[in-house]
Amino acid sequence: MAATLDIRRAADRVVTKTSWLNSRHSFSFGDHYDPHNTHHGVLLVNNDDIVEPGRGFQTHPHRDMEIVTWVLDGSLAHRDSVGNRGVIYPGLAQRMSAGSGILHSEMNDSAADPVHFVQMWVLPDVSGIDPSYQQHEIDDRLLDGRLVPIASGMPGHDAAITIHNRSAALHGARLQPGDSVELPATPYLHLFVARGRLQLDGGTDRAELAEGDAARFTDSNGQHVSAGEPSEILIWEMHATLGSAT
Length: 246
Prior knowledge:
Blueprint: E1 4-8, E2 14-17, E3 21-25, E4 43-51, E5 56-62, E6 66-73, E7 76-80, E8 85-88, E9 92-97, E10 102-108, E11 115-122, E12 132-137, H1 140-143, E13 148-152, E14 161-162, E15 168-175, E16 180-182, E17 186-195, E18 197-202, E19 205-210, E20 214-220, E21 224-227, E22 231-238
Parallel strand pairs: 13-14
Antiparallel strand pairs: 1-20, 2-3, 3-4, 4-11, 5-10, 6-9, 6-11, 7-8, 7-10, 9-12, 13-15, 15-22, 16-21, 17-20, 17-22, 18-19, 18-21
């Protein structure tokens, strides 16, 4: 089956903006609901957030969601109702499984500098699991110029952290000008340009992608992306969509 490509530009994202938060949503989120933009594959949320110094998300609940956080700049402090605490910084992958129910807070750990992070949500295979938390640091050298599994629930994947979804994996890479990587061949793929500028080259699928842009593939077949400037990308490889995950 031929691949299909849907490019979503950064400027078209809806935004939640307050005195301390600038949150740009790739999908429907909170009060911003679009019935035609609720998910891709099993990915429901891709929020690109900047939180001002000393501010953040006070204690709030989650249930039955796998929440992966990847910090681009600064540091983010996590605390939850089952006793987990941690500070996330660039290169440290974090996953919170909300399961049967959890309360947590996410606060900028700095009193001087903003924190910039991407938070991504996928549904677990099974609802009502025990809440849990995992974080693991990825050596910067591993991310340079190649795709590295950040989070995965797929059998046989050696990722930094695990998620409770057997059909999904998150990969990341930091690319310098001229670096090129091949995207996974998968039924559903979501590529997010966290920073920088890329050239997408996959047969008839040729496009420039800038910071904040996303490319949504159905039946991706090994397209390449190359960096035109220092870039960081986050790629979800997904072998199911909502309603079909096993």
